[in-house]
Amino acid sequence: MTRREFLRLLSTGALSTAFLSTQLGELLAQEEGGQAESLVWLTGHHSQTHSLGLVGQSESFAFLGRYFQRLENEGEEPLADQRPPILILEGSFADDALERGNQILRAWVPRAKVVVLLGNEAAFSKEQPGGYLDMMGQALSEVPVPVIRLPGSPAQPRHLLGVLNHLLMYGLPELDEFRRPKMFFGTLICDRCEYRGQFEAGDYVQYFGEKEGCLYLLGCKGKVTYNDCPTAKWNGGINWCVGAGSPCTGCSEPNFPDHLSLGLYGQLSHRKAGVASGWVRHAETLAYGALGTTVVGLGVHQGAKRSVARYRIKVDEEEI
Question: How does pLDDT run across 262-312, given as a tens digit for each residue?
Fold first, then answer.
């Protein structure tokens, strides 16, 4: 399979998690120079959620045990003659140099040939409690090793398996400005969403559970989020957040979950969302203006009715 074909199939969601895991196993079984490729998965605190998508493989937990050397906080340090591994870092790591997890991390990172930051805790270090490392700013800032970010809440198992396959077959994938692989994070959610037509037409859902349609007014972050969720989906390609009626929360973006004070369900500005239609862009202003005009009109109408009624009474009294 050529690299171009591999990327095309990945982008369309044609390569399933099961296929990618099988292919990864075959690649790892091929020895190069008499020694198999080494994969080390180091987990810190607040982690172990990003491996759940891999546990569903036919070999279940044996899949991780067979292909990955997975180390917890109390794991061992690399051997002197160990081949430089592809190092996967998941979770948060204490910044205390005397803490065992910190020591394990600092022992493995300089030995790695590639570091993969899996999940938001490791990838962006957002919302970290005090006492934990900023991975890029502290742990990896002075280490000359390639870094790949695979953010998400949780991270998509296809992304990890796809990156590992790409590393073994073709080397480093092309990365964006945040060091995310473009093969997964190269297109906006909204550009491939099934409700893109409704967005352009201004057909927006007004409240949760109303109907199928664009969730922009409910805080969807699809216009500022790069991910392949609309094509890859979740749970074996069955569904995804927007398909289930929830707005995209932008979980793969550096500003997740606060999104510059908007929060998960705060509405993007019309300018930031790129709403094209002037009528749609000023819909709220027009609605309030129409409401104000209606209220004034009703007031004038009521006043006119009272005046006419008084006049008629006077006329009637004169006639009497």
Answer: 999 999 998 888 876 554 545 555 444 545 555 555 555 565 455 444 444
Residue type, 169: M
Rg of the chain over Cα atoms, rounded to whole angstroms, equals: 28
- State both tokens at 19: 């296929």
Residues 311 and 155: their CA atoms lie apart, in Å, by: 76
Order across the sheet with 147-150: list the strands: 69-71, 39-43, 86-90, 114-118, 147-150
Residue 173 to residue 180: CA distance in whole angstroms? 9
The verdict on 269 and 124 lying in the same domain is no
| 97: its two tokens | 């140099």
Same domain, 242 and 168: no
Domain CATH for 237: 4.10.480.10
Give the span between the Cα atoms of 130 and 230, in whole angstroms. 36
E strand or H helix that includes residue 71: strand 69-71
Could you give the angle at the alpha carbon of 256 between the alpha carbons of 254 and 262, nearest 5°?
120
The secondary structure of 3-67 as a DSSP string is HHHHHHHHHTT-S-HHHHHHHHHHHHHS-BTTB---EEEEE-BS-S-TTHHHHTSTTTHHHHHHH
Residue at 312: amino acid letter: R
Give, as one character, the DSSP assignment of residue 146.
Answer: -
The pTM of the full predicted model, rounded to 2 decimals, is 0.81
